[in-house]
Amino acid sequence: MTGEFELIRDYFADIGGDLSGSVQLSVGDDCAVITPPAHQDLVVSIDTMVEGVHFPSGTSGDRVASRLLGAALSDLAAMAASPAFFTLALTLPDTDPVWLKAFSTRLAELARQYGVQLVGGDTTRGPLTLSVQVHGWTPAGKALLRSGASPGDRIFVTGTLGDSRGGLETLLNNIHGEQVPYLQHRFFCPEPRLDTALLIAPFATAAIDISDGLLADLNHILEASQVGAMLNPGELPISHELRHWVGEAQSRQWALSGGEDFELCFTAPALVEPKLAWALRDHNVAVTCIGQISETRGIVLAEDGQILPVTPQGYNHFSETGNFR
Ligand code: ADP
Ligand code: MG
Questions:
Q1: Which helix or strand (DSSP H or E) is residue 268 part of?
Q2: For residues 138 and 61, is the Cβ–Cβ distance under 8 A?
Q3: Is 41 left (phi over 0), alpha (psi -120 to 50) or beta?
Q4: Between the CA of residue 69 and those of 76, 131, 236, what are the distances in Å?
């Protein structure tokens, strides 16, 4: 791509900072050089977004940046890792300076906010596609896995569920109205629950971030841990905005199986619930108990004495609703 080096220098040379001080050499050489802190494990994850698949064509650079980095960092949160640095693979159809400025400015703001540094990447020409590979640290052996849930553990989620699915609906159907800005904000600006993850990590037995829908992602914990779950749908945390817009039944359905909430779902033994509540006493993100782990495999919804088995069908990027084309 002509001007590739200028583009990197102008937009991507100085983004974010690494709070762990592990980055020795950043953007500019053939590779970045990292010195791992003593007694830490490196935790790595990559996320890709394609225009027309993960976001509508014509989405502003700042919205793409927040969706991209937020979703990628959410995976680090799910492992209770502290973000350190990231790389960015950018495929651009052209070099639109307005889009690039908005993208890199927002990326820099978020990178500073979350203490993560852009240390390298790759820039090519083609249909707009963005990949972010995030790297974080956990104390050695302390990464929070999907496999530790036991029967009797309580199941918790952070924040509210279903908003992002609501935001997607407003985009797909070009809906306007009072609740739309909030719901679209929830779709484009996921807040990785990094601080919450560090607070719950001492008590949690398993965790995942909700990207494909609560049922689908909880099911990953259940399979990895070889257990089942009983959920109380009446306890699902649903925002006033979503409930007001689509009502209780549709909100619940989206809370259970709408995608891209980027909230955490985690389990913890019932015995540590008071300690968990104490650890979260001044925290500004809601953490709600929505059910418990059972020995019997599968997921059931339990409400008003009724027990309803459900399939862990989640949101699917290759289904119609997931595609903006
Ligand atoms: P090479 O050809 O040796 O792979 P490049 O010319 O692709 O190197 O990149 C030059 C430098 O710019 C490298 O340090 C690379 O990591 C960095 N870089 C390239 N694209 C990006 C990007 N989109 N964001 C951040 N750094 C980038
Ligand atoms: Mg090289």
A1: strand 264-268
A2: no
A3: beta
A4: 11, 9, 26
Q: How confident is residue 323, by pLDDT bands cut at 50, 70 and 90?
A: low
Q: Say how far residue 209 (Cα) sits from the centre of its chain.
A: 6
217 marked ligand binding residue: no
The phi, psi pair for 250, rounded to 5°, reads -65, -35
Atom 2 in ligand 1: residue holding the nearest Cα: 30
d(CA 186, CA 261): 8
- State the pairing for strand pair 228-231/154-158: unpaired
> Rounded to the nearest whole angstrom, what is the distance from the C-alpha of residue 234 to the centroid of ligand 1?
50
Q: What tens digit of pLDDT does each residue of 269-310 get?
A: 999 999 999 999 999 999 999 999 999 999 999 998 999 999
Whether 90 lines ligand 1, by a CB cut-off of 6 Å, is: yes
* 29 labelled binding-site residue: no
Pairing of strands 287-294, 228-231: antiparallel
266, 43, 260: which is closest to 149 by C-alpha?
266
Q: Cα(195) to centroid of ligand 1, in Å?
A: 31
Q: How far from each other are the two terminal CA atoms of the chain, in whole angstroms?
A: 26
Q: Which spans in 128-261 are helix H?
A: 163-172, 180-188, 194-200, 214-225, 240-257
How many residues does this entry show for the chain? 325
Model pTM score: 0.95
Structure tokens that stand for 74 in this block:
């959410």
